[in-house]
Amino acid sequence: MTRLQALFVDDDPAIRKTFTALLELEGFEVLALASAREATAVLAVRDFDLVVTDMRMETPLAGYDVVRAARNLPSSPEIIILTAYPLQTSDWKQQGAYALFMKGGNMGSLLSTIRDLADRRRATRKDPDDPPPDIRRKISMN
Questions:
Q1: Residues 71-105: tens digit of each pLDDT
Q2: What is the residue-wise DSSP string for 21-80?
Q3: 65: which of 36, 61, 86, 98 fits an S-S bond (Cβ 3.0–4.6 Å)?
């Protein structure tokens, strides 16, 4: 089974560690980075299926740099923004993010969104070695 590739960007080491573990449990191979600068450099040379980025890192809107760099990838990855500060819905959608979640918010909703995006991504890949999503969930729950 081909693993989906995820980029997780956050300047907080504890959040990086936690989300790396969560994404790995969902079947992603994860690259976790600490800054938008690092992420945009990697996005210039590597493709991902999912990009999850914090908003405030080097600057208050550094996450948008990551979103824009991800939008330029040929794979058109799914993009999620995490933030502790409210953003206008029109702003983050216009930048090209699929979803925005508040840090400390509903983790179940975030995980559900990640699972849905992963399932959608796997379906478009049509990898014959990937089991259907409902079977994968049953396996991971055991």
A1: 988 888 999 999 888 777 777 888 888 888 888 88
A2: HHHHHTTEEEEEES-HHHHHHHHTT---SEEEEES-SSSTTHHHHHHHHHHTSTT--EEE
A3: 36
